[in-house]
Amino acid sequence: MAERNLTVTAWESLFRAQVTVMRALSAEFPSEVISLNEYDVLFNIIRSPERQLRLKDLNRHVLITQPSVSRLVDRLAARGLLQKTDDPLDGRGTIVSVTSEGFTLFRRVAVAHMQAIERHMGAALDEEELAALTALCDRLRRSVGGER
Questions:
Q1: Coil, strand, or helix at residue 51?
Q2: Minimal CA–CA distance to 111: which of 17, 15, 28?
Q3: Nearest 5 degrees, angle CA 41-CA 25-CA 47?
Q4: What three-state secondary structure class fits 91?
Q5: Spatial CA neighbour of 55 closest among 22, 93, 103, 100
Q6: What's the CA gap between 8 and 63, in Å, rounded?
Q7: What is the C-alpha separation between 12 and 84, in angstroms, rounded?
Q8: What does the alpha-carbon distance between residue 97 and residue 144 come to, in Å, rounded to a whole number?
Q9: Which end of the chain is less enclosed by CB atoms within 10 A, N or C?
């Protein structure tokens, strides 16, 4: 077990780095097209098999609350970016899938977002450091019960 002061210092450093990077990415994000939260929802659905996900499972993967996710999904569906259908295996459940229009929009925004990520992360860390950071973050997430 690590010493408490070192653990708290590492947490503060990780937290402040995340906030700083997110602020920079948010400033460059094409929010006139889609919000970061909308992007996060599309991202999680698109990386799921067949580009669809149960609404209940989507709630576990995004950083916003369940009522907010439901409203956001409704807005994206109204814009034609998502489609909602009843879960054939559970009548109480809802399946959310990305439409072709939603996928096209996501890809366009993702390219710009990935370029910003590359500029900020790639400029600060080399490939070995990025791999180490990924491994450490994955290990930390697993240790506190994260799914991915």
A1: helix
A2: 28
A3: 30
A4: strand
A5: 93
A6: 23
A7: 40
A8: 29
A9: N
pLDDT, residue 66, reads: 78
Reference 42, options 28, 52, 29; nearest CA is 52
* Residue 29: both structure tokens together: 């994000």
Tally Cβ neighbours within 10 Å of residue 20.
11
H helices of the chain, in order, are 4-28, 36-46, 55-61, 66-78, 100-124, 127-143
In this model, does residue 130 exceed pLDDT 90?
A: yes
Answer yes or no: are the C-beta atoms of 128 and 28 closer than 8 Å.
no
pLDDT tens, 63-81? Answer: 887 788 999 999 999 999 9
What domains lie within the chain, and their CATH numbers? 25-113 (1.10.10.10)
Summarised one tens digit per residue, pLDDT across range 92-126 is 889 999 999 999 999 999 999 999 999 999 999 99
Name the H helices within 62-126: 66-78, 100-124
Task: Compute CA 109 distance to the chain's CA centroid, rounded to the nearest angstrom.
Answer: 13
